[in-house]
Amino acid sequence: MVPLSYYLALSAILFCLGVAGFLFKQDIITVFISIELMLNGVNLAFVAFSHALHQVAGNVFVFFVMVVAAAEAAVGLAIIIAVVRNRNTLAVDELSQLGDK
Amino acid sequence: MNLVPTEFYLRILPEIVLSVFALLIMVIAGPARHGSRARVNGWLAFIGCLIALAAVTVQAAHPGDAFSSMFRVDDFTIFLHVVLIAATAVIVLLAMDYLPQQGLERGEFYALLLFATVGMGFMVGSVELIMIFIGLEISSIATYVLCGYRRHNSHSTEASLKYFLLGSFATAFFLYGIALLYGASGTTNLYQMANQGLHISPDGISHAGLVLAAAGLMFIGLGFKVSAAPFQMWTPDVYEGAPALVTGFMSAGPKAAAFAVALRVFYVALQDSSATWFWMIWAAAILSMCLGNLGALRQTNIKRMLAYSSIAQAGYVLVAFAALGAQGASAVLFYLAAYVAMNIGAFAVISHWAHREERYVELKDYAGLGFRFPWLGFCLSIFLFSLIGVPLTGGFFGKLYVFQAALHAHLIGLTVIALLNSALAAYYYLRVMVYLYMRPQEQPIECAPFTAPLWLAVASCLGVTFWLGIFPTRALDFAVKSAQQLLH
Amino acid sequence: MPIALHLWIIPLLCFTGFLVNLVFGRRLSQRAAGAVGVLFPAVAFGYALWVVSQWSALPHPYLENHAWWMQTGLLSIPFGFQLDQLSLVMLLIVTGVGLLIHIYSLGYMAHEGGFYRFFCLLNVFMFFMLTLVLANNYLLMFIGWEGVGFASYMLIGFYFHKDSASRAGMKAFITNRIGDFAFLIGLFYIFDHFHTFTFSQLFPQVQRMPVEASWGGPLTIIALLLFIGATGKSAQIPLYVWLPDAMEGPTPVSALIHAATMVTAGVYMVCRSASIYDRAPHALSVVLAIGALTALFAASIGLLQRDIKKVLAYSTVSQLGYMFMACGAAMYGAGVFHLMTHAFFKGLLFLGAGSVIHAMSGEQDMWAIRAAAPGGLRKYAPITFITFLIATCAISGIPFFSGFYSKDKILYDTLTSGHGSALWWAVGTLAALMTSFYMFRALFVTFFADPQAAAAKVKAKPAHGHDDHGHHAPHESPKAMTVPLMILGFLALVGGYIGIGDRFEHFLDPIFATGVPPLPVREIAGGEWTVTIISVSIAVLGLLLAWLFYLKNPALPEKLADSMHGLYELVFNKYWVDELYGALITRPLAAFSRVVLWRGVDAGLIDGAVNGVGYTAGAAGNGLRRQASGNIRSYASWVALGAAVVLLYMYWGGPRV
Amino acid sequence: MQLTLFLIFGALAVAGAINLLVQRHPIYSALSLVTVMGALAVEYLLLGAEFIAFVQIIVYAGAIMVLFVFVIMVLNAGEVIDQPRSRIAAFLGLPILTLLAIELISRVYGDFGATTLTMGSPMVQTGPIGQSLFHEFLLPFEVTSVLFLVGVLGAVVLAARREKPQVVAATRQQHDQEKAMAAAQR
Amino acid sequence: MDFLNHTIVSWTIFLPLLGIVALLLVRGEKQERMTALIFTTATFLLSLHLPFHFNSAEGGFQFLQRIPWIPAFDIHYTVGADGLSLWLAVLTTFLSVLGVLVSWKSIKKNVKAFFILLLLLECGMLGVFFSLDLFLFYLFWEVTLVPMAFLIGIWGHERRLYAAVKFFLYTMAGSVLMLGCILWLYNLSGTFDYMTIRQQMASGLYHLSPGTEMWLFLGFFIAFAIKVPLFPFHTWLPDAHTEAPTAGSVLLAGVLLKMGPYGMLRFDLGLFPNASRAAAGWIVVLGLIGIIYGALVAFVQPNMKKLVAYSSVSHMGFIMVGVFTFSLIGTQGAIYQMLNHGVSTGGLFILVGMLYERRHTFDLSEYGGIAKVMPIYAGFFIWIVMSSVGLPLLNGFVGEFMIMLGTFTATVAHAHVYGMVAAVGVIVGAMYLLHWTRHTIWGELANARNKVLQDLDRREIFVLTTIALLTLFMGVASPYFLNKTSATTAQVVQPFQPHPAVQSAGLVVRQGAGQ
């Protein structure tokens, strides 16, 4: 007997840790990974709700989220590769050529 | 298992047409990659857009829901389809001028544009959150790629990465909002949420708080996409770094689509809690206008300046958004239409003037342009005037409608701030014209020959800008009807 | 209406002259321009004479109205003219003396530049002056009032290349405007109370009102305001300062405008408003006091002036004071009488002075003239001398000359009238003494050889002369100048006789019968003869003193000046009034405008605020820009912050649904 | 029992996530994420989401994360030893995060505090999921193909090396000409 | 004729636009100048139709034309003329002709664009005066803004950019608030039609609270006050004037400033009588400050154009006082003063421009003794300065006098004080103008570069003669102009009269005067 709220809290924690990763990590790939962590947190919430509501839909949503994550990963990593080719760095803080100085 | 009824496909016909043409381009993009034959891709894409526009009429002839009520064809859908596909058509035309000039001509550009439009089509037509999310992702991913299209340029790739990372970050919030809303209501269909009322979830417990949190989270995602403050920080950098034409596209299409989604979500699904989220919109509107306009004041790069301007423009749309009701929605729609026309028009001129590798995007590069190339200068001026909100242009009538709606909703303070902002904004738009006409040029910059697609594109933007400004009745009626259908 | 006089033709004739010379003057020869300039006033004078011939057949007053000048609501102002005894007198003076001076100018201005321009302006002056005297309402009168001011301004600045001339013109105009300001407010009060400016409608209304006993009565206020206007135009204390400077203009101008006609407009206006003044005894007392004080004050300054025109200018101020004294004593007829004789003799004096200056190639300093004309100028310019002598006698009040009759009348009236008093009579008499002294001083110094001629040196500073004159030996002036001198000499001699037995005043009586019963006349011992004898002795005394000082014993004045050094300096420097005005008003105003208003308030405060808004916006924009550092994680932090705030609001701040 | 499992794997997931944060080398972060995913797969199983649990392992942890690791290898990514330059993230990051976490957790926790889930509820079978994918969710399912297409196209556009050398040369030449022209005009 | 009467206003407004089309078609600077001249002249002649066929007895709108435009907002293209707009429109067309003439030689670059903007400006200004639909009014209001800013910015002098931007932003800031108020009115009434709104406002249909009415009033008022410009909103004016080309200054001073008082009479007084009454005291005080302040600041200006610009502040102060004391005479005077100021100050700017064309400086210290080398110029100079000083028989006096008299005798509180303070303007006005005269055309011809100046040529003489004759005509024949405006003015001031008896008495023209 696990209360729904436990699952939701876990999902929120994971989501927030993802945010933290985005905010604090220094290299692009980890930042991207943090986004995946956030999505995982959301997925957990979907599944938990799906379970609580006795619906299939939530599971399907998670499926779609994964699909999206896959597409995003493909493009995102391609972008990262393009960036690295241009700049030869993976440090997020290095990528601030644009911006008001 | 029943066959899917034909109307369902007719209802998404524009998307199908666009996808088909995008695939076609992908297929022939290989053989026709370079040289004069590359132009075939562009014309193909343009024809695709025209056929898609024709398909919109087919779509319009079959109003109703499709695919388990995931997609809805109503006037709202039609209105935005017209705007978005027309915008893409213009961008395609411009690309035929821009890409060869930049040495970037490859068919994939057009395919990505069309796919992005497909995504936006689904965003505006869907009434179900997951579908909306997927549409959003399609258009976003395509746009991320387009931003980095000049892949050997560090600015372009940096912009792409910034947009991608921050965009995904914001999308995660949006998705979390969807999850919470799903949990609170047991459904992801917006109209179903509206019908059952969000106060009572299937378990019989009120989840009003959760709904509000979901509203906030979704606004973060959507606010990011429309570059509303305080989620606007990415805009200047990405707009500056992306190829000028892509910037034009980004500032128009995805923004309009995201606003459409916001309308559906907030006006339809979340209408019961409007008393709460209203203030969020209200604050975001003020912040967007002020931050956008103030930030633009001292910019020297015209793309960056227009980025800040687009933040401010989002603020004006949010003013209409805050007006609520059919009037607010129709004002949003009308303003978006006008904004798309004038902003793409402005970027058309800018992207043509940018020259190879976008060397000339600083304001000083525009010195004396107005008299050396009178038509180019004239067009840019008209678009800027429209952005300022000078009468006889679509921008003016859009603003008028926005402010009228806001005043109608007794949002006096908001309207006054918006009015003052639009006066403040005049400064930096005018500054461009100061360079165009009032400063002597420092170096003679030659202008690439004006190609037919460019003229066609600019002329249509000009035409629409004036049409919306002088004879707005038809567009206005359409917007009103769309808004009414949205709410029913 | 049996006779239509078409009075409008008279001013318009002069205006035509103005226009003709304005448009074609440059292309006309000097002779033709002069002919045009003289012809139109001549015809006007002829027309005026014809009007006189019709006099007996006319209704009194004769009125005519033409188009509306202004017409809206209650305000309707016609181009309307009025001919009555007063305006008839003025008409004749203006056209007559004016014509003579025009003719004189033909000779005087022959060698000056801008010949056509001079006649142009002289004609336009005539036009405005005639409008002033013929107007049937205050506002039309105001056209003339301002217009003559304009003409005077232009003519004072005739030698525009001289800074002093343009400065003097400006000073005249602005000082006049200060008076006009009060005049205008007086007009506003009139309209506020009576809803009309037309004499024939206004005065009957006024005449139904009682005599006011307080200072605050409407008529008193109106009368005082109008009088302030008059002090501007007629150069009374405190606004007299422009007239001496106005001598920068060509001498005929001084004669016509600043002696004979324009400056008397104030007197004319006060006389015209007799109905109002009669009911405002307080205002009358002010008029009397100001007039008497001005007479004395200006005369005292005249005592020590070295420039012949300046002497005459202060004399004019002083004589105008006499006229106001008459008005202040409610004896308007005497004022007008003096106005007329003054026009003759002062016009003559100025023309004579002009002739002298002409003879001396532009020299104006009396001592310099004396030095440059060995043996006395009278030998070289006998006609000028004789006419000048006549005029001097007239102004000094030597019996049987015109000035004697009018001035004597004024002094007598001041003493005896219910509004007058012995004090002001004494002041007037003292001024008369001074007048006699300084006029004969001028005569002696200018026309008679210095008894110490052998040793004479020009002590005076080099005088400012007319650039256009060459330097020739002293000579008599041409006919064009001497003939008007002679005519005016004749008038100055006999002009007073029409006043014998108060005939002139009785002629004017219908105008000044305002319905207020005259105050009882104060009886004095010996009646009029007492006053006359005193006046005559005073005049002779002045003559003798002048003779003593400047012919008999020329060393005496210096000794006297040394013994009363302070007083001498004070009077010689015209009581420092110009300097006082400059230090108290003109310069502080300019400095205030420049430093406080312009630099401080306008550029600093207001525009500073405007630009400050812009600057603040720009600075705010720059501040915002600093946030756009380009750092992805910073941007994400902003998004997260936004998210946190939004959620916080949704969580805590939002209205519960 | 369920609670225990939930707690164990929940703790594992959180620990993985924290490890992701703490690790300095991206490869360890990626592997930490795989840990999180695995732990979550167990949680999905606890929630009866069999299909999702396996997809999580196979597709997410298997395919997507492999892609990550692959890219990390390709780029030869190492530790980033840069000084952090985002002042706002450094100073405001933690407060913001704390605020956000408190808000989210308390909200979701508070709203469903009373709802408990029983393990007794039936497992979601793969069959119904498939059915709904081709029935109710036909449109999104079809549209994801477009999504993938875009993904592929994007990856190709951005990452593929394929420019023909002579074209590049021609482009350069043109560029140089333009520059020379501009210089001459100056 | 009937057709013409119904469409004349539109013809007048849009003939300049036709001129733009024609300009686009012709080639060659000379032909462009001629085209501009032909079209402005034609517009002027066409606009003369209005006074000749105007029914003076009718206070309402005439030559009405009404075409539905945007039904969704009940926007109509409604144009017409009444006493307020009649002469202002004629003034506009007249000054536009002069604007072309004075630009004949001074504009050397981008001639075509210059005249296009000038014609566009003319169209806008005419539209402002003729519009009877708030939407249309705002539209034309903004249309005037753009060409003016460009005229300043492109063909102006050293600090033209600053001036153009300042002009644009300052005016824009005011007009957006007006837009807000227009929309508010629309939300109240459901229409943009001026006549309908006015009628409904007057009938008290909306039950506006005094506070609301005041805000609405202020929204309109600030836009107009900036345009006037009323102290302390005036600082854009010296900059704009100093930098503008001559034609720009002429039209700016001559017409654009008039849009302020016109708007106040039409909208503020017409729609919000209660608020107008409540705010009048402050406004009159500001106007009075403007009169004296403008004059004093003008007095110390070293720059001729700034001097004239500040003189405008002073003169426009008179108009403000006349408008906001609500007397028939004062308001009539204000209307007349608008015309006078347009002609006289336009003339002054032309005079300045002619000197500038010869010497390329506005610095007062560079001049002096000009009368010696340019006697014809000096003659016109004196004439027009005198018209501005307010010499009776020239135009300036009539307006100023009526304003002061109307103010002094008005029924508002402190009317006497207002009138007296306004009359101080008579003194200070003479001060700065004569000061200017003294240092420009008078004095010694010291500067060697001034010794070779050419006197006016035929074109310049023609321009100045026109103005001079007009000042004279307007100075002596004011009833010709004011009889046509009086019925409308009576309507405007009617709500402000305390007693019906006084007001009807005010309307009766006393025919017997002087007879």
Structure, described:
The complex is a heteropentamer of chains A (101), B (488), C (657), D (186) and E (515). In chain A, 77% of the residues lie in helices and 2% in strands. With 101 residues, chain A is an all-alpha fold. In chain A, helix 1 runs antiparallel to helix 2 and helix 2 runs antiparallel to helix 3. In chain B, helix 6 runs antiparallel to helix 7. Chain B is globular and about 70 Å long. With 657 residues, chain C is mainly α. About 3% of the residues of chain C have low confidence. Chain D is an all-alpha fold and 186 residues long. Helices cover 78% and strands 1% of the residues of chain D. Chain D contains 7 helices and 1 strand. The interface between B and E is medium-sized, with 35 and 35 residues. Strand 1 of chain A pairs antiparallel with strand 1 of chain D.
Overall morphology of chain A: elongated
Ends apart, CA distance between termini of chain A: 56 Å
Query: How many structural domains does the protein architecture of chain A include?
Result: 1
Quaternary structure type = heteropentamer
Rounded radius of gyration of chain B (Å): 21 Å
CATH topology name of chain A: Helix Hairpins
Q: Main attributes?
A:
heteropentamer, B: 488 residues, mainly alpha, two-stranded antiparallel sheet, 20 helices, 2 strands, D: 186 residues
Q: Can you describe this structure in just a few lines?
A:
The complex is a heteropentamer of chains A (101), B (488), C (657), D (186) and E (515). Chain C has 657 residues and is mainly alpha-helical.
Secondary structure: elements and pairs:
The complex is a heteropentamer of chains A (101), B (488), C (657), D (186) and E (515).
Chain A: E1 2-3, H1 4-24, H2 28-53, H3 57-87
Chain D: H1 2-22, H2 26-46, H3 50-75, H4 87-111, E1 116-117, H5 126-134, H6 138-159, H7 165-185
Helix pairs in contact in D: 1-2, 2-3
Chain E: H1 2-25, H2 29-52, E1 62-70, E2 75-81, H3 83-106, H4 111-130, H5 134-155, H6 160-189, H7 194-202, H8 210-227, H9 236-243, H10 246-254, H11 259-271, H12 273-299, H13 304-323, H14 328-359, H15 370-373, H16 375-389, H17 395-408, H18 415-440, H19 458-476, H20 478-493, H21 500-507
Antiparallel strand pairs in E: 1-2
